[in-house]
UniProtKB/TrEMBL annotation:
Pfam families: Usp (PF00582)
UniProt xrefs under SUPFAM superfamilies: Adenine nucleotide alpha hydrolases-like
Compositionally biased tracts (Basic and acidic residues): 61-70
Organism encoding this protein: Thiohalospira halophila DSM 15071
Stated name of the protein: Nucleotide-binding universal stress protein, UspA family
Region entry Disordered, spans: 47-70
């Protein structure tokens, strides 16, 4: 029986479906939702905020904290009572694996959008990397039609694709 499950959330339809599947099939497990922010996105958010306020990007720690706080609030809006939330910054695949190890997860759950081989070659695939390197099983949920019982477990917020 699964005791601890980490679910990678990127706020896409695929990650919402992965969350719904995990909630339906991992009852009784401690669930942690994890969102990983790319360093470039954090830096861009900080630089944009610095440009807007006229402050130096070098002193933009408050803006980074704000970006992280907004991401955490959004992640928490997807969580149900009793589910944990975590936020990381870095390479998505490596950060998911690191946090899964730290959380002592029995399984990693994530959605996939089924990008083309060319897209994966150019951008990389966190899912593919984790399947090859994670120390726990990885459940990959594709965007597929969902039945009503699974759909009932979807997060109640907007989704970005």
């Amino acid at each position: 029986m699964l005791q601890r499950v980490i679910i990678a959330i990127d706020f896409s339809t695929a990650s919402a479906q992965a969350l719904a599947v995990a909630r339906q099939h991992c009852t009784g497990a401690t669930i942690r939702l994890l969102h990983v922010m790319r360093p470039a996105d954090v830096a861009a958010s900080s630089a944009a905020g610095a440009a807007h306020t006229g402050s130096s990007p070098l002193s933009s720690r408050d803006m980074r904290d704000s970006a992280e706080q907004k991401a955490m609030e959004r992640l928490e809006s997807w969580a149900q009572e009793g589910e944990e939330c975590g936020l990381g910054v870095g390479n998505a695949a490596e950060e998911i694996m690191r946090q899964a190890e730290e959380f002592e997860a029995d399984m990693i759950v994530m959605g996939t959008r089924g990008r083309s081989q060319l897209s994966n070659m150019l951008h990389g695939s966190a899912t593919e990397w984790l399947i090859r390197h994670a120390h726990q099983p990885v459940l990959v949920v594709h965007e597929v039609p969902m039945n009503d019982s699974t759909r009932a477990h979807l997060p109640p917020t907007e989704i970005n694709d």
